[in-house]
Amino acid sequence: xxxxxxxxxxxxxxxxxxxxxxxxxxxxxxxxxxxxxxxxxxxxxxxxxxxxxxxxxxxxxxxxxxxxxxxxxxxxxxxxxxxxxxxxxxxxxxxxxxxxxxxxxxxxxxxxxxxxxxxxxxxxxxx
Amino acid sequence: xxxxxxxxxxxxxxxxxxxxxxxxxxxxxxxxxxxxxxxxxxxxxxxxxxxxxxxxxxxxxxxxxxxxxxxxxxxxxxxxxxxxxxxxxxxxxxxxxxxxxxxxxxxxxxxxxxxxxxxxxxxxxxxxxxxxxxxxxxxxxxxxxxxxxxxxxxxxxxxxxxxxxxxxxxxxx
Lengths: 127, 173
Known about the structure:
- By secondary structure, chain A is of the alpha+beta class.
- Chain A has 2 domains: 1-31; 37-126, Sandwich (mini-chromosome maintenance (MCM) complex, domain 2), CATH 2.60.320.10.
- Helices cover 30% and strands 35% of the residues of chain A.
- In chain A, the strands form 2 sheets. A 4-stranded antiparallel beta sheet of chain A has the order 2-1-7-6. A 3-stranded antiparallel beta sheet of chain A has the order 3-4-5.
- In chain A, a hairpin with a 2-residue loop joins strand 1 (37-42) and strand 2.
- Chain B has one domain (2-170): Arp2/3 complex 21 kDa subunit ARPC3 (Orthogonal Bundle).
- Chain B has helices spanning 2-33, 48-58, 61-79, 82-104, 110-133, 142-167.
- Chain B starts with a helix and ends in a 6-residue tail after the last helix.
- The chains are: A alpha+beta, B mainly alpha.
- Chains A and B meet through helix 1, helix 2 and strand 7 of A and helix 4, helix 5 and helix 6 of B.
């Protein structure tokens, strides 16, 4: 036992346990509720806001104007169904619908984030 | 005589480092083959960290950094692309420095060092992602990535610790 854990290791794991408890609290209590729209940004600039309630397919262009990604919105959830990059990480990601959840396509610098009007109002009041 | 001895130990060290580099490349390849998809990009097992931690404790920190960087460049060229290299480099270098701090200044043992490295690796990747897309909303996933970093880091750390205790003495120059 002594070979594997010293005094500092116990302190370290104590901190890790506290961190994990904090994350559990966030997960079960503070986790955001469902959002009602998605915001698509390309290279940090807002490309468009789309409602999650409408069933739709949104083609997303890259800087050259070619369609690089396609986002599908169905039954209140958004999912990337097309990407022209080689590793398709964004397509492997689960559907998103909670506030602030997002899908990122790094090669095309596309970020899809769930937003809601209510939380925007709260933010506006807080500001 | 002494010169000869130092030469032979240099040769042995070179051979060991080549061996470890090859081992870490095999680990990256095995990881590419694992088809598990966790639903969130960036969640990986981190098998190569076994080799990095082993090198760090049995050979030295500088050597571990060398193996880590070479492995990322080579495995990026072999199985990935420019983006995967960028990502792995950020994660690999940040986790390396966190592990060195843990090992040298806090005198942590393998399991704790590997756990801190796992967390740092994921945080580093997230930082690059946020920087590339110019959007900090990706930090929504930081809790999930920390949990996955702790779990994979613990697992890898336990394996590395047992290896260091069992075969560490055999690696001598």
